[in-house]
Amino acid sequence: MTAALDAITVVFVLAGCFFFLAGNVGLLRFPDTLTRLHALTKADNLGLGLVVIGLMPRMDHPLSALKLLLVWALGMLAAATVGQLIARSVLRRGLPIWKGPQ
Amino acid sequence: MTAFPLLDPALCFVILTTAVLAVAIRTVFAAVVSFIVFGLLMAIAWVRLGAVDVALTEAAIGAGLTGVLLLSTVARIAKHRADRGDDVPILEGPEPDPAPTDPLPGLATQSLAIVLSAAVAAALVAAVALLPVPAPGLVAEVGSRLSETGVESPVTAVLLAYRGYDTLLEIVVLLFALLGVWSLTADARWGGQPGLRHLARPDGVMAYLGRLLPPIGLLVGVYLFWIGGYRPGGAFQAGTVLAAVWLLAVMAGLVPIPKVSGIRLRLALVIGPAVFLAIGLAGYPLHGAFLGYPPAIAKVLIILIEAGLTISIATILGLLVAGAPEERPS
Amino acid sequence: MSVDSLFTQPGLYGVTGALAIGIGVYGLIVRPHLVRKIIAVNMVGSGVFLLFGAVADRAAPGPGGDPVPHAMIITGIVVALSATALAATLTLRLSRETGRTALPPEPEDPAVQDKES
Amino acid sequence: MPGVVWGPDVGSGLLALAVVLPVAGALLILPLGRHAERVPHLLFMAGLVLATAIAYHVWIGGVLTAAIGGWPAPLGIVLRADGLSAVMLLTTALVLVPVGIFAAGEFQPRTADGRESRAGLLFWPLMMGVWAGLNGTFLSNDLFNIYVALELLTLAAVPLVTLEGKAGTLAAALRYLLFALLGSLLYMLGAALLYGTHGTLDLTLLADRVRDDASALIAAALMTAGLLAKTAMFPLHLWLPPAHGGAPAAASAILSALVVKASFYLVVRLWFDLFPSLLDDTGATVLGLFGAAAILSGSVLALRQARLKLLVAYSTLAQLGYLFLMFPLAGGGTEAQPWTAGAWSGGIFHAVSHAFAKASLFLGAGILVQGIGHDRIADLRGAARSLPMVIAAFGLSGLSLMGLPPSGGFIAKWLLLTTAMASGRWGWAVVMFAGGLLAATYVFRVLNRAMATPEQPLRLVQPVHQSRQLAVLFLALVSVLLGLVPAIPFELLQIGGGLSTVEGFR
Amino acid sequence: MSEFLLGAAFFLLITVAGGLVRVVLGPDQADKMMAAQLLSSGGIAILLIVGVGLQLEGAIDVALVVALLAAFAAVAFVKGTSQAGTGDPEAVGVDQLTTLRQDAPQGRPDSP
Question: Is residue E24 part of a domain?
Answer without folding.
Answer: yes
